[in-house]
Specification:
The protein is an alpha/beta fold and 578 residues long. It has 3 domains: 138 residues, Urease, subunit C, domain 1 (Roll); 125 residues, Diaminopimelate Epimerase, Chain A, domain 1 (Roll), CATH 3.10.310.70; 234 residues, Metal-dependent hydrolases (TIM Barrel, Alpha-Beta Barrel), CATH 3.20.20. The strands form 4 sheets. The protein has an 8-stranded parallel beta sheet. The chain has a 6-stranded mixed beta sheet with strand order 3-2-7-23-24-25, with no helix packed on it. The N and C termini lie close together (11 Å). The relative contact order is 0.13.
Length: 578
């Protein structure tokens, strides 16, 4: 169940807190009185000076003390809320290191195709949606992945079907179905018509319209080609009032936040929002309606960044609810859609080395702007060519622009890196913003895309990067994957696939390092390590309580772990019904 900020506190407690604030201590305790105490458990602090404790005291939104149960008992007063952990594990609140907040909420408002095991299932789901849709109404979905289907559909091109069976069940409704990676979409005939896509339509820069043997569009749109249909979708919303658009966006945020809290996520790195979306986040903070903390990367054109960037720098705005100090760019696509930019052609598609989705000059200009205004630069790069080019751009920027001694610039994903480039992350101080769950989710087709030797040498090199001295972070890239830190943590420490095999076991992280990658390292990657990421006196009281001790239980029991409680700023925002 979810709680509002103040639902757990009566007026009497409020007045008592005022008295305590004035006196600084209670006559019945030896020091300041805590509002909330967690005791009788195992506290994994991620603090090297005291790695573990039994209890923690919280006053307002801040950690008052960490120690043994007997020590923390000194901070309990008559009105202190005491939570008995009964041996459970409490950790710093999970920080989602790379996700898409609005897309997470939107994914709950459209067709969920993540569990489909065949193209026929996708078509059936669209057919069902058509029955309740108005003629001309857009039908949207997300989450399909051709590599997860039991069979390759007949007549497929590059393993992806043509639109004809989908169009047959939706002749009067435009349909757009996003690939699980977010780097491709599938459109039916009506959507292609409304978007003006035909056999004569040229591929846009950084994108591809897939064609069949006759030269006709199959319906598959890779990378920037998706924008051709997205514009048609946007036109369908032109008649909506601003109030209706705001309500829709706020519904998406509400769904996303609820999902985050239920999964123990207290902070969320939002990988790409517009200035207008940031305005909305700020308004929600001002109105006291943002229950989690956001670190937001700005995704805008270079022209708009140059004009508006200085007005959007926010460091811990609204009691550390909103931080905006970074820019998000992308340079390639995803491995699953053959969009990752590689140094050599794909093993299973020799005609392609992937897609460069933004010019190097454009990204260099973004680097100049970031340096000029003191913003962090975070660039999506999955393929080895993409990673090398971004490392080159970062290295050039560090040499050419003043004030970049420790900029903490990030490569988002860093999934496949040439062995020659792996040491450059630590040497340059570039953060490897990775997602553990991508490894085990993608592993089966990584072999097909790269071949075993390239996969061994450069794919998901967590341990190699860590040992080199690079900062490695963790997350889920939600909604590409579920916002489930336990699943990503398990993937990071086990690299175990569904069939029981292990994907290059020497690249596993220890359980302690994996937890650090999800907490303190993510805080560092957002310049917030002094206020969050570990459980220490004076830091924000963001805590996740787990049903099992993921640091010591049998490895295969880790996925059974549940989030029992999520605490943000000293307030219990989620508690699992047991």
């Amino acid at each position: 169940m979810l709680y509002t900020f103040y639902s757990r506190f009566s007026l009497s407690i409020f007045f008592l807190s005022v008295i305590i604030d004035l006196t600084g201590c209670s006559s019945q305790t030896k020091g300041p009185v805590a509002d909330l105490v967690l005791t009788g458990g195992k506290i994994a602090t991620i603090n090297e000076s005291m790695p573990y404790a039994e209890a923690i005291a919280i006053r307002a939104d801040t950690i008052l003390a960490v120690g043994s149960s007997s020590e923390i008992a000194d901070f309990v007063g008559p009105q202190t809320e005491v939570v008995e952990l009964a041996g459970r594990l409490a950790i710093p609140g999970f920080i989602e290191g790379h996700g898409h907040l609005l897309s997470l909420g939107r994914a709950q408002m459209i067709l969920d195709l993540t569990a489909t095991k065949s193209w026929a299932e996708v078509v059936d789901m669209v057919s069902d949606a058509v029955r309740t849709a108005e003629p001309g109404e857009w039908i949207q979905g997300r989450g399909w992945h051709q590599e997860k289907w039991d069979t390759v559909p007949e007549g497929s091109v590059d393993g992806i079907p043509t639109h004809h069976s989908l169009s047959a069940v939706s002749p009067d409704n435009p349909v757009l179905l996003g690939h699980a990676s977010g780097h491709g979409s599938f459109a039916n005939a009506e959507a292609l018509r409304l978007s003006g896509i035909s056999s004569e339509t040229p591929d846009p820069s950084g994108g591809e319209i897939l064609h069949d043997v006759r030269g006709e569009p199959t319906g598959m749109l890779r990378e920037t080609a998706q924008r051709l249909v997205s514009r048609a979708v946007a036109r369908a919303s032109e008649d909506m009032t601003q109030e209706a658009l705001d309500e829709k966006a706020e519904t998406q945020i509400r769904f996303a936040i609820q999902e985050a809290l239920e999964n123990g996520v207290t902070s969320f790195h939002d990988a790409g929002s517009s200035f207008e979306q940031i305005d909305m986040f700020k308004r929600l903070v001002d109105e006291g309606r943002l229950p989690i903390r956001l670190y937001v990367m700005i995704s805008e054109s270079n022209e708009d960044l140059e004009e508006r960037l200085p007005d959007y720098f926010m460091d811990g705005y609204g009691d550390n609810r909103l931080t905006v100090r970074s820019i998000k760019r992308g340079i390639d696509g995803a491995l699953g859609t053959h969009g990752a930019w590689l140094l050599e052609p794909y093993e299973d598609l020799a005609s392609s080395s992937g897609l460069n989705t933004a010019s190097l000059e454009s990204v260099r200009e973004t680097a100049r702007i970031a340096a000029k205004y003191g913003f962090q630069l975070n660039v999506h790069a999955i393929g080895d060519r993409a990673n090398r080019e971004i490392l080159n751009i970062f290295e050039e920027a560090y040499a050419n622009f003043q004030g970049l001694d420790a900029p903490r610039w990030r490569i988002e994903h860093a999934q496949h890196v040439d062995p020659e480039d792996l040491p450059r992350f630590a040497k340059l101080g570039v953060i490897a913003s990775m997602q553990g769950i991508h490894c085990t989710s993608d592993a089966l087709w990584v072999y097909r895309r790269l071949g075993k030797e390239r996969a061994r040498a450069g794919a998901y090199k967590w341990q190699t990067l860590w040992q080199s001295g690079a900062v490695v972070t963790n997350g889920t890239d939600v909604p590409v994957e579920n916002i489930d830190p336990i699943a990503s943590y398990y993937a990071t420490v086990s690299r175990k696939l569904a069939d029981g095999s292990v994907f290059f076991s020497d690249e596993r992280l220890s359980r302690e390092h994996a937890l650090k990658s999800y907490t303190l390292n993510n805080a560092y990657a957002a310049f917030e390590e002094n206020v969050k990421g570990s459980l220490e006196t004076g830091k924000l009281a963001d805590i996740t309580v787990l049903s099992k001790d993921i640091l010591t239980i049998d490895e295969d029991s880790i996925p059974e772990t549940r989030v029992d409680m999520t605490i943000v700023g000293g307030k219990i925002m989620f508690e699992r019904s047991i």
